[in-house]
Predict the structure of 7TM GPCR serpentine receptor class x (Srx) domain-containing protein.
Amino acid sequence: MALSEDKAIGAVYVVLSVLLLTIYVIILKIIKSPVPLFSSPVFCIMFHMGIIDCIQLSVHTIGGIFSLAQSTFDPWANKIFGGIVNGTWIGVGPFTLLLALNRLVLVCFPAKMGIFFHKRALLAQLVVCWSFPSMFFIMYMTPLCGVIYNITSFGWEYDESPWSQTVSDVELYSLSFMLARTIKVHMTSVSTRNYVKINGTEAKILIQAVVITFYTTTFLVGWHVYGLYLPDWKWAEFFFNLMWIFNCGIYPCLHITLIP
């Protein structure tokens, strides 16, 4: 019975991840289409956020396969996939903050958009955003720390390496700082929105950014502190892993509902 249960959970991961990934790829193709609207810096940032989410969804699909097969096949493959999925998850922080800053400049200082988000400045910002998850990925590839898929608890988690707890704490505090700053920036943008008129599409993008930030913050806090409030059982891990998958897929869902 337990084996069938485990495989059913693996099937849920695979089906949900593939479904969201398929929708996401379609949306990313639309964003890269030669439409003037999609040439703005905000869509470039959202495209890179989409790449990060698609990478996570791809690895969540692999996690589902691990549960279906009841095997991670190879310890190094498990470690590499874990490093990729957690590294890209950490990348959500800087990209979400960058998106919030883009919205803030648009709403509060529209005349400065060409200064803060011209091509070279945007490229530099994207490089900085990508460097943050890359540093974590490099750390995950060392013997000092790692993230692996645990078949018995249906999810990705830090292993028992010497620095794993420390790196987990660094992840929590650094992302908490970024998301707190992001929320502050959004609060400023939303309050200013009452006095500054922006077009409908830009307003919808602002709504997207706010929703994504609050969902990501909820997931981050829940993932790191659920052990303090919930019993140590596999269904808690399953629930938060589902939240993680939905966190990767929240943008395409919002895109479909908010942007024609």
